[in-house]
Amino acid sequence: MNGADLNFAIGRALGSEVSGSERLAGRDISGATRLELADGRKIVAKSGPLVSVEADMLRAMAETGAPVPGVLANEGDWLAMDYVAPAGCADKWSALASTLRTLHQPTDHPYGWDADYAFGPVSIENDRSETWSAFWAERRLLSHCPHIDTGLASRLEHLCEGIDSLLPEKPLAALLHGDLWGGNIVWTRDTAFLIDPASYYGDREVDLAMLTLFDHPPESFFDTLGLDTGWRERQPLYRLWPWLVHLRLFGDSYRVPVERELSALGY
């Protein structure tokens, strides 16, 4: 759908014509546009084959009470959401901890999600599983083996043979953001809003592992989350997946962190 057709469809759905637009840089791989409507509202629009999946993720996150942009309309390959304006936050890590405690409430959902997702050309397999260690091995690690060199693939396969000794079989399942890094957090005056999810149900420690790829929360942030014993030892295993995604998306410069995490785990 071209820009004019998208603006027309959104204007019709929201009852006000689009009067201006601005491309938002750095939000996610697919990109997003901030639109101003004739009635003065500012919204965010995205288009693509997976925006309906994202809309379902945002709705599920909103149901937990976590602060996320509200879904205004979703028709076919486009999505319109509330625009959340960033503002200075006096204690951003405390605000984020509060958001994650709300999002990560225990559930009885099986691990995974009802639809697959993707980061650009890299697919995210989400078939449900009753066993967490099997889900992580099959959906998050071994799924990369056909797309990377045989040396790394062999190390991953060896790791997954012993994964039951590294991960709990059935940790409490929480709704995850799934791509939690600083660029997907909008801090307002006293709240941390989460945007651009790649959600599924799993161990909440995964979100923390992704957060520490590029960001450096203070120890007080982790202390307030009441994490399970051994969570630090599991972080390299959970960081492996996003590093593998980066390796496939952006090339061999990300081989070093993949190898670093494997070595930290003894593989």
TrEMBL record:
- Quote one Gene Ontology molecular function term: kinase activity
UniProt lists the family membership as follows:
Belongs to the fructosamine kinase family.
**Transferase: is it a keyword of this entry?**
yes
Record keywords, A-Z:
Kinase, Transferase
Q: What is this protein called?
A: Fructosamine-3-kinase
PANTHER family in the record, alphabetically?
FRUCTOSAMINE 3 KINASE-RELATED PROTEIN, PROTEIN-RIBULOSAMINE 3-KINASE
Family matches, as InterPro entries: Fructo-/Ketosamine-3-kinase (IPR016477), Kinase-like_dom_sf (IPR011009)
Transmembrane segment boundaries: none
The keyword Ribosomal protein is assigned to this record: no
Q: Which Pfam families match?
A: Fructosamin_kin (PF03881)
